[in-house]
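Q: Convert this sequence to C-alpha cells.
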Amino acid sequence: MQHSEELSKIADALQELETEYEKRTWTQYTTGFDFGVATAFENYVSLLKNKEHWLVIRQILEKNRDPLLAREAKILENHFKPFHQSESISRLSVEIQNLSTKLSSVLNSFRYTVNGREMTSPDIANILSTNPDRNLRKTAFLSRNQISRPLVEAGFLNLVKLRKQLASEMGAATFVEYSLKEQELDPDMFSSWQGELSHILPLMQKTRAEIAGRYTGEQAVMPWDEAFIASSIAPELNAPVNMSDFLKPVGALFQKFGFDISAMNITYDVFPRKNKSEWGYNFTIQNGIDSRILANVKDRFSEFGVLLHETGHAVHSFTVNPDEIILNMGISGIVSEGIANLFGSFRVREEFYSPFFTENTETARQHFSELNRWTRASQLYALGRIFFDQKLYTTDLETLDDINNLFWENRQSLFGEEPYADQPVWANTIHYTTHPIYLHNYLLGDLTCDMLEEVFLRRESVSAITQKPEAFGRFITDEVMKPSGRYPFPELFRRISGGELSLSFLTRKIRDTLM
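A:
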C-alpha cells in the first residue's frame, strides 16, 4: 500500500506539470506565440530529476511482486530514466526538446506559395484533389518542399545528431532501437517488412496502374495524382458542406456507438488562420477532463476525415479512467492512432456519409467501394515515410542534399521508383521534427482496426459492426481503450486477437481486397 501511495503522489505531481506544458503547447500551435513552453518543460524535467522519486521507482521494480504496481513502476521508469543516467543525457534531453519546439514553430508559421500566391494547406489540398491540370497539381505538390531549406537552416540536422547522441549515451545501437524500446516494441519488428512488401507490391502497383489509367490517362502514379484519383473515383469527397455545423454529424456518428461527445469537454479549433499549425492534432490536456482539437478545414466533405480522427483521440481520452494517471501514460501510440483511424475511416462508410448524399446513396456506395480498392492498393506506400524516418538515424547526414538523396534511395529501394522532381517533399511532415520514429503507429493502427473488426464480427456472428454498433462501442471500450495502458501493445494485441502482431495480417487484407 505504501508503494502504491508513493507512486500516486509522483503521478499527481507529474500530471500537474504535464497539464501546464500541454496547455502552453496548445497555445503555441494554435496562435504561433510561445507563452512559456520551454519553462513549462523545464519544470516538468525538474520533477523527473528528483532522486527520491527515482529511488522509489527502482525499489518497486526490484522488490514488488504485484503485476499492476510493477507495470506502473515500469512506465514511470521509462520517463525518469534519461534523467538519472548522467548529466550529459539529462542536458541532451532538454536540448532536444527545446530545439524540437523551436523547429515546430518554424513549420507551424510557414506558408507555401503556388505560382506566387500564398496558400493554406486546405487550398493546396483542394488543387491536388480537384484540378484536372496535372502541371498545376505538380506545382502545388512541390510547393511543399519550400520548407526543407528553412527547416535545415534552423537546425534540423543538429536535432537528428542530438537524438543519435542521446541513443548512444543511453546504450542503444541506434536512435531507432532506443525509440522502439521506449515504445515497448521489438526493435527487430521491421526487419521482414521490406521482404513482405516485395511479395505484394506487384499486385498493388498493377491495381494502382489500372485505376490511374482510367482517371489520368497515365498508368504511372505521381504524388500529385494520388488525391485527384481518389476524388475522381469518389467525387463525393469534394462535395461542398457547411462546416460551421460540423459537430452535428460528428456527434451523431459517435452517438451510434454509445459515445456522447456533448458530455465531454472537447474544444475544437478547426478553421485556418495565420501562424496556426496546419496539421491536425488532439491535445489531451488531462484525461477525462480536457481535450482540445486543432484542425484546418473549409467546406469539403473529405475534411470530415481529420475531424473524426481527432475526435476519436478525444473520446479515447474520456473513456480511460482519469485516476489511472500512470497507466494512461503507458498507452501505446498504436492503440491511440488505431482508435482515431477507426473513427476516421467512417468518413467513407454509409453510416456517416448517407445523410449527406440522400438522393444518390447507391451511387455514393459504389464510389466509396471502389475507393476502398484504391486505398488498399496504396496502403503500404506508408512504408516509404516510415523507413525514411528510421534511416535518418542510421545514415550519416551533413547537408540537405544528403537528406534528399536518402529520400530518393529509400523510394527506389522500397518501390523501384525514380525521383519525381529535383527535390523531394519531406520536411513538411512535422513528425520527423516533433515525433520521430512514430509514423509506424498509423499503419499499425490501421492493422489494429482490421483486427478489431474481424474479432468482433466473429464473436457476434454479424457481417458488419454497424449491425450492433453499441455492442461494438462497448467492445472497443472494454477490451481496447480502458485497458490500453495496462499492457505493452504486442501483449494487448495478442489478448484480443489470439495471434501475434505481424504485418502479414495487413498484407492478407490487401490481397483479399485486390484479388
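Residues 141 and 224 are 6 Å apart (CA to CA).
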